[in-house]
Design a protein that fits this description.
- The chain is mostly helical.
- The chain has a domain of about 55 residues.
């Protein structure tokens, strides 16, 4: 069967033991920013604010992080701010509709 599918025989065994599709489990490892307040819970998360947060993390906690790492960390906050702004936006409909 493995030769027919073009995969490892161990993969076929794993799927047979699981009874079908195996659920992928992400490794649960500690992240560098876990347990730290990233700051800027309110306000804009622009480039200047990100630089300020990176400098604060480096100065106060001696944690050096890259810009993409910080962007991934603040992404949920950005989404929440965007959703709040959209929820409070008033949409006008034209007359007669």
């Amino acid at each position: 069967m493995a030769r027919h599918l073009g995969c490892s025989h161990q993969t076929v065994k794993d799927y047979a033991v699981a009874g079908g599709v195996k659920v992928f489990k992400s490794p649960e490892r500690q992240k560098r920013l876990d347990g730290l307040k990233v700051g800027c819970a309110r306000g804009s998360f622009g480039i200047a604010a990100m630089r300020m947060v990176r400098q604060r993390l480096l100065g106060e906690n001696s944690v050096a992080v890259s810009r993409p790492t910080l962007q991934r960390t603040v992404q949920p906050y950005r989404q929440a701010l965007k959703a709040d702004a959209l929820a409070t936006t008033r949409f006008e409909t034209p007359l007669g509709r």
